Amino acid sequence: MKPLNLLIEMWIILGVTIKNIEAEKHNKRQKETNVTTQVSVNEVKQFLSHILERRRSSKVINKRENLLGKKKKQHKLKMKGILNKDLLERNKNHLKEQAKKNFTDEGDDLFNMGIKILQDSKSQKQKTEAYMLFAKAADMGNLKAMEKMADALLFGNFGMQNITAAIQLYESLAKEGSYKAQNALGFLSSYGIGMEYDQAKALIYYTFGSAGGSMMSQMILGYRYLSGINVLQNCEVALNHYKKVADYIADNLEKSEGIPVEKVRLTERPENLSSNSEILDWDIYQYYKFLAERGDVQIQVSLGQLHLIGRKGLDQDYYKALYYFLKAAKAGSANAMAFIGKMYLEGNAAAPQNNATAFKYFSMAANKGNAIGLHGLGLLYFYGKGVPVNYAEALKYFQKAAEKGWPNAQFQLGFMYYSGSGVWKDYKLAFKYFYLASQSGQPLAIYYLAEMYATGTGVLRSCRTAVELYKGVCELGHWAEKFLTAYFAYKDGDIDSSLVQYALLAEMGYEVAQSNSAFILESKKAKIFEKEKMYPMALLLWNRAAIQGNAFARVKIGDYHYYGYGTKKDYETAATHYSIAADKYQSAQAMFNLAYMYEHGLGIAKDIHLARRLYDMAAQTSPDAHIPVFFALMKLETMHLLRDILFFNFTLRWKWMKLDNMLGPYWDLFMIGLIVVMLIFLIRNRHR
């Protein structure tokens, strides 16, 4: 199937049924702007007709020339014909180039319009309109629009998942040098989704993608070299890849504060995903709105924060954020005052950038001792926004806010000492404040800590530590938004779409995505994988998640080896993984499983006493383990008692058999006589 046919298929899926009406509107707009392709084509036709008419006229005139100069005239006609032909070709080429340029410009305009609608969209209908524009722009040869459509086909945006069509479109784009297409083909090859499973080919695609500028490819390569996945483990190479992505993320974070994305674990509450604390239920949201309208200041501030940055599954809405902050500020909330100051400092649709207003609200909050307000005043003096630059004042406000535990202020103090802004450079103090801020997850503080460990500035150089810190920064990239779309797709029953998105994030090294992908594969609900490949792939992903510290994944690996899922049954390996989970992560499930293996001697030496101890430890570690442990211990003690009784009976019978052999059939009379003799001896001794 050719790319054009794919694009036509996309149009059909999107439901573009008003083509003629749109074409008429489009033609009207083209005539008004005088830059349309149709006008250009008409001009081409008229111009070519004029040139052809000139050629015919000149031929007639040439034939009527004097016969005496026939040879001379014929020579001139020949030369003139050649010149006219060259002129015609030049004009043709010029008009074609002009038409192509107009066509390309129009495609660019449609793509930009689609991007703007997508950024401002708050409904599914608006997003669909954006993709309709992308489809039109892609039909005009716009590569960026083709990339968008290929992504939509791969990830199943709006229920239009078609992996085969996506692959064909990506392959076409890759030939044009698209690094996004190279990255996508690498991802599909690494999992064998719609393509042959080929890790070597995936590595080549990722290499080309990273060379072309793909941050996702850089991150994938960084994770592969860090973990030694199909390449030799190399910390320095991983550091190089992760640093490039972290630099890109940090640059964006300096322009706007990073927004953490909720990463829902499907393994935590599979029976009731809607109650997951990472996503705010619609009913709960309505209840919070009711409380906010009733005057609950704390709820007003919380809703304002959620809408300000778009957390808990809510859309970012500056107008709603400002509305709730103003209500809380009128009630005297210092936090609300500080957040209003922040909105005016940064500027947005609801609160246009205004340093004076920002200073006013920051001052109101700071007078109440609010850390956010103090930090805001420090920023104004540090950058000279609305006030003269004054590092001494900035330092004073940052120190006050940092003492109250505000991580952004701690970072700013660290940055001042790191860069020597208004103070002497002091890397030890810089490290101290960066570390304090990083404990609260301040992304830029984590980035600068990574810089210090990578270069050995103020601390002993540590490649591994630097890479781990850089990795944490990289995971704040815009691609992390797929966690939400993947979760909602899973919740809506679109398993394949959810799996593809989680799998891509897993390939980039997100531990949560690795466990979620394995969880979905284990359920065998996905259709994009063959059933016999699901358990082996799930085992691979559980293993990657376990290496990154997921205790549940470590227990799962033990289960897979115990039952032989995706691998051969191996009790020894299962016991090893259960031991790691029990010793390192104090997993009650691992303790219980290990106790069972000790009880029955599966893969390890049988040890009833150790089994009892592990059962007791499981019950102490988790309240949920009390009931299963109670029944397990009852069973163990019952079986142990039965074995003791059987052993006792067997021992007595064995002894009797032995006496028959030694003393003959009258051994009992012999024993009675021996007892009588002993009694007589004891009685005589007593009388004496």
From TrEMBL:
GO cellular component, one term: nuclear speck
Biological processes per GO annotation: ERAD pathway
Record InterPro entries: Sel1-like, Sel1_AlgK, TPR-like_helical_dom_sf
Signal sequence, start to end: 1-23
Pfam families: Sel1
Transmembrane segments: 666-683
Keywords noted in UniProt: Membrane, Signal, Transmembrane, Transmembrane helix
Family: Belongs to the sel-1 family.
Name of this chain's protein: SEL1L2 adaptor subunit of SYVN1 ubiquitin ligase
Source organism of this protein record: Sciurus vulgaris (Eurasian red squirrel)
